[in-house]
Amino acid sequence: MSTYNATEVLVGGAVLACAIAFGVYASQSTGLSQNGSGYELGASFRSLEGVGVGTDVRLAGVKIGTVTGVTLNPETYRADTTFTISDGVLVPDDSAIIISSEGLLGGNFVEVMPGGSPFYFEAGDQVEDTQGAVSLISLLVKFVAGDGSE
Known about the structure:
Layout: H1 6-29, E1 39-45, E2 56-59, E3 62-73, E4 78-85, E5 96-101, E6 108-113, E7 126-127, E8 130-131, H2 136-145
Parallel strand pairs: 1-7, 2-6, 5-8
Antiparallel strand pairs: 1-4, 2-3, 3-4, 5-6
C-alpha cells in the first residue's frame, strides 16, 4: 500500500480549484450562466453564416442578448432563429435585425437597428425586417469579375 504525500494532495487540490475557476469564468463569459432573465424574440434569415447559438445580440455595440436557437425551416429554406433580449431593453417594433461582422477577420454577431416606433416588441414576437449575412468571398468574386453595370 502506498501513502499519499502531502505535496501530491496540495497539487491535486490546486489543479482542481483552477479547473473549477476556469469553468465558472467560461460559463459567465459565454453567457451560459444567465439566469434566463429577458424576453425571447424570433427572426428568419436568408443566410445566417457565422452565427450560432450563443452569438451576441448587440444594439449600438453593446451586448443586449444572446442567440438561443437556430433551426432550418424546411418550407421556406430560411434560418429561423430565436434570441433573448435582456429585461429592461425595449426594442421598437419597427426595428431591423442584421447579421454584422466585427471586421475583416472578426466573427459575426446579430445587430439590432432600432426604429422610431413608440410601440415595442413583446415576448414571443417575430421580427420581420431582417438582413442576412453577406459572404465576403462572394463580394470579392463580384469585385474581381465585375458585375457589368458601369
